[in-house]
Amino acid sequence: MKKAIVFLANGFEEMEALGTVDILRRGGIEVTTVSITSDPVVIGAHHVPVTADTTLDNAILNDADALILPGGMPGASNLNNSEAVKEALLGQYREGRIVAAICAAPMVLGGLGLLKGRNATCYPGFEPKLIGANVTGEAVEVSDNVITGKGPGLVMNFGLALVAAIKNDAVAEEVAAGLLL
């Protein structure tokens, strides 16, 4: 079974996190939501409380096919301030497995140097934080094992790109058809 982890930090964008989880699960991917604090209850940017499947201290991060960062503020900044999250992303990237971020969260990848020489996208205004990237403004950018998305209204595009990368295009197309896209 293919596996993905979606990190949740207080202030996360609810649509991006939960929409991505939903799309991945529709694609038959085992998704674990991970609170980056010791509290499994994480409060979204629009004050929606979500109970994560586990916390960072208890999560197994080294067997996931993808590590995913939803955006939202201050959620993306909180992710960027977590050394454990950044270490996990670097290890994942070095092993050639997928790292993905949407909205403001690609700034975490940019700060780690993972976007250098790659096409990438983000929420308008965060372009300077995508250090070394060719920022395109597209809905989604897939560059080898790095996937970035622009923002909440494009979560379907982001989620389907992840399904295609983790599984294949046929599964992504099947999920898209079921969503009437």
Labels describing this entry:
6 helices; single chain; 181 residues; 11 strands; 7-stranded mixed sheet
Structural account:
With 181 residues, the protein is of the alpha/beta class. Helices cover 33% and strands 23% of the residues. It has helices at residues 14-26, 75-80, 83-94, 106-111, 155-166, 169-178; strands spanning 3-8, 30-35, 41-43, 49-51, 54-55, 66-69, 98-102, 119-120, 134-135, 140-143, 146-149. Strands 5-2-1-6-7-11-10 form a 7-stranded mixed sheet, sandwiched between helices. A two-stranded antiparallel sheet has the order 3-4. α1 (14-26) packs parallel to α5 (155-166) and α5 (155-166) packs antiparallel against α6.
What is the subunit arrangement here?
single chain
Strand order across the biggest sheet?
5-2-1-6-7-11-10
Anisotropy-based shape: globular
Helix content: 25-40%
Low-confidence stretches: none
* Rg over C-alpha atoms, rounded to the nearest angstrom: 14 Å
What would you call the structural class? alpha/beta
Order of secondary-structure elements: EHEEEEEHHEHEEEEHH
Per DSSP, what share of the residues sits in E-state strands of 2 or more residues? 15-25%
Provide a count of the helices.
6
Provide a compact summary of the structure.
The chain is α/β, with parallel strands linked by helices and 181 residues long. The chain has helices at residues 14-26, 75-80, 83-94, 106-111, 155-166, 169-178; strands at residues 3-8, 30-35, 41-43, 49-51, 54-55, 66-69, 98-102, 119-120, 134-135, 140-143, 146-149.
